[in-house]
Amino acid sequence: MAKKSTHTAVTAGCLFAGIGGFCAGLKSASVKVLWANEKNEYASQTYAKNYPGIRLIQKDIKNFSVIGDKLEPVDILTAGFPCQSFSVAGERKGFDDERGQLFYQIVRIIKEFGDQKPSVLLLENVPNLRYGKGGVWFEEVVRNIKLAGYWLGQHNCKVLNTAEITHLPHRRDRLFMVALAIDSFDCNDFNFPLPNGKPLGLGNLVDKTKKKAPDNYMEKDNRYCKIIKRKMDEGEKGSIYQLRRSYAREHKNECPTLTANMGGGGHNVPFVKDRWGIRRLTVEEYAKFQGLEKIKFPDSIPEKEMYRQIGNAVTVPVAEKLAKECVRILITRGGI
Hints:
The chain is built from ten helices and twelve strands. The strands form two sheets. Strands 1, 2, 3, 4, 5, 6, 7 and 8 form an eight-stranded mixed beta sheet that branches. By secondary structure, the protein is α/β, with parallel strands linked by helices. It has helices spanning 21-28, 41-50, 103-112, 128-131, 136-147, 162-165, 223-234, 283-289, 303-312, 316-334, and strands spanning 11-15, 32-38, 55-58, 76-79, 120-125, 150-151, 157-161, 173-181, 240-244, 247-251, 270-274, 277-280.
């Protein structure tokens, strides 16, 4: 049985907050976000514009602390910590990479709360964190979270695909880990969301009725445009086509995983064809696939940075489903 809470609202704090994917999901689950931490200046500007009522501390997490930043205790702590060192697309240095080592800052902050540490941890990363290096990286994460005083095992960690558990046709696989504090709960029986049925069709998210800005369209004599066009001529009109270095791949019913590097061109960029030509997905379309259709960007944010921020974000409906289960477990077992 969980310990009784002294407050009535479920509260949360967000580390590596980005532009607020976790925050949006938490708010949709009626969780009160008290504070957030983000280092990146552009991401912080976007976060502040969309969540003016939340205290955002913009600084390197290595300089972030419970006492120094006067952090209120929270029920839920979220952290979508850097994934580059664990991703199959990177050098896979894991905890030998400075970015991978930032995971330990989460553990440090948890310990700084002492006996007021969060009851629930909600962590997110790429699937390869679980499977890479023969499972050694994953074992290191689990070991450290356990030593910090939490229930966490294989069954409390799951790779979720956005297209399978939400209405969004976005093939985005991410590893989510949910840990429950040992001094608040006698076990960890968190329930991950189940498959949700058929997502929306691509036509609901991709607008082909209006001509987009000229820089969204590929020049017809561009060699990559020719590669994509050949694939489009073979495939279906309503599909999304993904540029993969020297070839193109068709995605008939869903968008490929949106990543941070798509705004700068290069491989993995998704394209569609409308009556005006072959074009990349717009910022607004990217946002819809991430459940961020209400996002507002400051005028100071370059378009390339908008793509990067959206690609880095946690998909909002996924975060909402996880947050609702966190709330359920806190209320039914924690007396909130």
